[in-house]
Amino acid sequence: MTRGAPRALAFLSFACALAGVSLLAQDPPQQPFRSGASTVAVYTTVTDASGRLVPNLSKDDFEIYDNGKLQPITLFQTETQPLSIAIMLDRSGSMRNSLRLVLLAAEELVRKLLPADRARIGTFGDKIEIMPEEFTSDQSALVRVLRADIRADGSTPLWNAANEAMSALSTESGRRVVLLFTDGVDSPSPADLFKRSTKSVMDVVERATRDDAMVYAIGLEGNMQGTRPQSGMGVGGGGLSGGFGQTSNSFSQRPDPGLPKIAEETGGGYFELTRGDDLRATFARVADELHQQYALGFEPTKLDGKTHKLEVKLKAKGLKARARESYVAAKPKTTS
Fold first, then answer.
1. pTM for the complete prediction?
2. Are the beta carbons of 107 and 197 closer than 8 angstroms?
3. 109: CB partners within 8 A, 6+ apart
4. Domain span at residue 126?
5. Which of 326, 297, 300, 296 is closest to 311 using CA atoms?
6. 11, 19, 178: which is closest to 82 by C-alpha?
């Protein structure tokens, strides 16, 4: 991205524009840009045909459509906006051989966070934990979490973990990001199934839309031991699709098919890996994307409390824009 003006000044100018006030007339705002009653924030990643990030575009290169209608872009920023990110790592039993590599890769992402960014580290397996207690910009504290005695055990409560990450992010201002890593498909614990307290991928997509959250996902093809379905009996979809017979041996399992879906719906990215040695580069790529997104904003013409379809288009051929596909046009809160 172009870094012409100092990052802090550019950010303050953008935040003040969002609030509709003069930079000189007010004290510097402390909160980064996010959607509000008058402006919808649309963070957009742009790549070329080879997947490289594309910098140096202008507002005139973009078009935003709300329910199919072209909208004037009222705010545009190329400077990096601060973010709060919940990094959620699978530590289920199938991760015993890969967990150390994943923790090292997550450390790579932590070290690429900017001073204004805030993060927490979550793990999910036999239970879901998110540390430390508050979001922090202290990279040393985050690395200590990753270097603690984290063991692989239990099932893969993927969507429950994503939902808890969003709950943790709910009080954070500005950009809210969840990074999900797993080598398997969603498999809630027996206790959650008994209590009927499980979340589905659609539950999490709907919450991300309401909460204005972006989800990135990294899936690693898992190596499973045990009974493998045969003759059309699917594993990756989280259920069996028919057929006869089973074999007992080692087999590979693709990550949960909901991962690319939620990434696409929320404007994040999805990366599917077959080798653990690609993890560091992939986690680093997530950090690079988050720090090279375009911040677009428009003022919705109708605040009807409904979910609206969003589409970001680029005028130049050969470029791809990735942004969230919907938002909730929340009605203004009434005061008594």
1. 0.82
2. no
3. 87, 179, 283, 284, 286, 287
4. 83-290
5. 326
6. 11
Domain count, the chain: 1
CATH of the domain at 189: 3.40.50.410
Per DSSP bridges, beta strands 294-298 and 40-47 are antiparallel
28: in domain: no
Amino acid at 232: G
Peptide linkage before 190 cis (omega within 30 of 0) = no
Would you write out the chain's pLDDT as a tens digit for each of its 336 residues? 444 433 333 333 444 444 433 222 333 333 455 555 579 999 999 999 999 999 999 999 999 999 999 999 999 999 999 999 999 999 999 999 999 999 999 999 999 999 999 999 999 999 999 999 999 999 999 999 999 999 999 999 999 999 999 999 999 988 999 999 999 999 998 877 767 779 999 999 999 999 999 999 999 987 655 544 443 333 333 332 333 344 445 557 889 999 999 999 999 999 999 888 899 999 999 999 999 999 999 999 889 999 999 999 999 999 999 999 999 998 877 654
- The full DSSP string for 41-83 is EEEEEEE-TTS-B-----GGGEEEEETTEEE---EEE-SPPPE
Does any domain span residue 144? yes
- The residue behind tokens 């206790």 is 191
Instruction: Note whether 150 and 123 are within 8 A (CB).
Output: yes
Q: Cα–Cα distance between 20 and 179 in angstroms, integer?
A: 32
Structure tokens at 6: 């100092």
Crossing angle of helices 99-111 and 139-146, rounded to 10°: 180
